[in-house]
């Protein structure tokens, strides 16, 4: 163990919250004082982050809000571009250049609660693949499509990915990266799969030489067709326990994936995070068996208390 494990006290959390809010407010003030230099395209919410690879009418959608010196009044148009990211070389590699997909006019935006223009911008899988110039078979389950917005102002200025600083592109409020990645997925036949009561068993110890998650019976719930959450799992039982935390996993094209940056609710310097494993358990796309499966992950992926270590837990349906 690199440092003594310290629990997050209420007082510390309150201080951290105050500090974070104060820092974010200063960032907002700084950005607003200089917003006349350009355009901010703030992400309000990602409405639909993934598309069924077998459905050409599947929709990717995001709600964004535009801001400039005239509170969005300088917007001439917003353009969407797409690039295929081939993550499945085992069945051939498709090389894709970036292609223009569609334009969004100022008239399509509506004034939001902050007095700024907002739009639910969307595009279908068919629109994207047609623009890119690829057909079914050249893109597969597990691939992604990168979407990039470009904003042109009436002044002739054009803003897009790379034209913002980190406070704007990744800040808590502004979140203005101008680009996103839509995953191509295969939907499950039923959202009841991989849900219900499961026995959690520690299959491979974590970075501290002990289980990261307490063994026991837990409920797995469906968040969406392909996303599941194990509810209320206490963490590091040999030292606490701490938490409890919800543990998320995703069912992606026959693979059972553990998403990155999942906190154990405790840490030495910041927080102990569990991340994506070096390998994944699998399931059959046509007849998935949810009676027992393993979640492979990286324990303490950021080396907060120890060295990042491959670990695993098994879930057995009761």
Low confidence ranges: 1-36, 164-174
The helix/strand class is mainly beta
Report the CATH topology name of the largest domain: Immunoglobulin-like
How far apart are the first and last residues' alpha carbons, in Å? Answer: 35 Å
Strand order of the largest sheet: 16-17-19-20-11-12-13-14-15-18
Please provide the ordered H/E string of secondary-structure elements.
Answer: HEEEEEEEHEEHEEEEEEEEEEE
Roughly how much helix do the residues carry, as a percent range? 10-25%
Q: What is the architecture of the largest domain at the second tier of CATH?
A: Sandwich
Share in β-strands: 35-45%
Characterize the overall form: globular
Q: How large, in whole angstroms, is the Cα Rg?
A: 22 Å
**What is the count of DSSP helices, taking H or I runs of 4+ residues?**
3
Largest sheet: 10 strands, antiparallel
List keywords for this structure.
318 residues; mainly beta; Immunoglobulin-like; Lipocalin; ten-stranded antiparallel β-sheet; 20 strands; globular
Condensed summary:
The chain is mostly beta strands. The chain has three helices and 20 strands. The strands form three sheets. A ten-stranded antiparallel beta sheet has the order 16-17-19-20-11-12-13-14-15-18, with no helix packed on it. Strands 2, 4, 5, 8, 9 and 10 form a six-stranded mixed beta sheet that branches.
Structural description of this entry:
With 318 residues, the chain is mainly beta. It has two domains: 37-185, Immunoglobulin-like; 189-317, Lipocalin (Beta Barrel). It has helices at residues 10-34, 125-132, 166-169; strands at residues 40-48, 50-52, 59-67, 75-85, 99-104, 110-111, 117-124, 144-153, 158-160, 179-185, 196-204, 216-222, 227-235, 242-252, 255-257, 262-263, 273-276, 281-282, 292-299, 309-317. The strands form three sheets. It has a ten-stranded antiparallel β-sheet with strand order 16-17-19-20-11-12-13-14-15-18, with no helix packed on it. Strands 2, 4, 5, 8, 9 and 10 form a six-stranded mixed β-sheet that branches. It is globular, with a radius of gyration of 22 Å. The model is unreliable at 1-36 and 164-174 (pLDDT under 50).
